[in-house]
Amino acid sequence: MKSKLKSVLFASMAFFLAIALIRFPDQSLEASIRGLSMWWEIVFPSLLPFFVTAELLIGFGVVRFIGILCEPIMRPIFKVPGVGSFVWAMGMASGYPSGAKLTARLREERHLTQIEAERLVSFTNASNPLFIFGAVSVGFFHDPKLGVLLAVSHYAGNALVGVCMRFYGANDSSTLEREQPTFSLKKAFQALHETRMADGRPFGKMFGDAVLSSIQTLLVIGGFIILFSVFNKLLFMIGITPIIAAGLSFFFQLAQLSPELAIPFISGLFEITLGSQMTSKIEQIDLLQQVLVVSFILAFNGFSVQAQVASILAETDIRFTPYFFARVLHGCLAVVLSWLLFKPLYLDRDIAGTYEEPVFSEGESSSLLFDWFLWVGHIGPTVTLCSLFLAIIILYQRIEEKK
């Protein structure tokens, strides 16, 4: 009975989407182009180098090397192997869904148990600093100082999620079979050499596999970005978003937040960039309220990113539910941290800045980040085209070799 209800639900959703697309073709096309542009200009060129590099580092044994060195740190704090430090760092540097991609890859390599992978994926998907400082703080709010507050709340909240999730699956026996973590440089080098020898692929083959795997993942990510951009627009066009916002406004008022933030908040639950941009455009309300909403949106990841993560995890035995729970927890922690740190990290620093400006001010560094963000968007299409062309060449060569 449950499976039949699920079938009816999925069929109804697909039917609704088809009817809405027919009813609002112009708006759907506009939203689709917006999602495609975001993937084409920003997501693909910014994530591809990280994905390819990560695949090469795994193949060459560098990840195992890092894992053994970081085991005495990661195991006591987060109850995950030392390789989790690599995933965590790459996830923060490149942004979501890199953490899920790398966690799934390490699970396939048997560096993680199922429970450890579920713990790790819960706190290694984060927004990258370029987006927080360049796009949100400078691009949307036109306030470079806001980036520090958003970044500290976001990354500290993610770390706290990792500490909380260490208690998830506490009775899992598979984590108890591992050796007691000890720092050993010799053992780390030995593991690096053994991993490279066990892989056995020549560099050309390894590089080609890394490019193809990364592009395949990015194509799936692009599909989700476009789909949720259209879905978000259609919900607004048929009036569902305003209805939900009207009900949500009551809870916002209880929390002493402006009801005008309800629609941007709902949009942010689906797509982070749009929600953050809409929140920044709400005028004549307290900046702290906008910061709290944006902090939750960044931490929640949005259903678009969550769908990307779900598709990546579906190829493994890693369950999606712990990740979703961690996103809600991260959102709540980020809001609390933003509220607590708003005065010391924003108001007090703003007052201090009126008396003394450093030689290299935060405004200059944030401006450079915003310029870098614009530059990535400018060369993004060229990088995407060249990468897709390279993937076609690699595929063609491999087809010819099999003949």
Structure commentary:
The protein has 403 residues and is an all-alpha fold. It has one domain. The chain contains 17 helices and no strands. The longest helix has 41 residues, at 362-402. It is globular and about 60 Å long. The relative contact order is 0.14. The model is unreliable at 354-361 (pLDDT under 50).
- Summarize the helix and strand pattern as letters: HHHHHHHHHHHHHHHHH
Shape: globular
**What is the beta-strand fraction?**
under 5%
Q: What's the number of helices?
A: 17
- Report low-confidence residues grouped into runs of 5 or more: 354-361
Number of domains: 1
Report the strand count. 0
Average pLDDT figure? 84
The largest sheet, given as strand count, sense and whether it forms a barrel, is:
none
The amount of helix comes to over 70%
Query: Using only CA atoms, what is the Rg?
Result: 22 Å
Structural class: mainly alpha
N- and C-termini, Cα separation: 49 Å
Domain Nucleoside transporter/FeoB GTPase Gate: 43-138, 218-314
Transmembrane segments: 47-69, 120-141, 206-228, 234-254, 291-312, 324-342, 372-396
Keywords: Membrane, Transmembrane, Transmembrane helix
InterPro entries: Gate_dom (IPR011642), Spore_IM_YlbJ (IPR014226)
Summarize this structure briefly.
This protein has 403 residues and is mostly helical. The protein has helices spanning 2-23, 25-59, 62-78, 83-94, 98-108, 114-121, 129-140, 146-165, 185-199, 203-237, 240-254, 262-270, 272-280, 287-300, 302-313, 321-353, 362-402. Residues 43-138, 218-314 form the Nucleoside transporter/FeoB GTPase Gate domain.
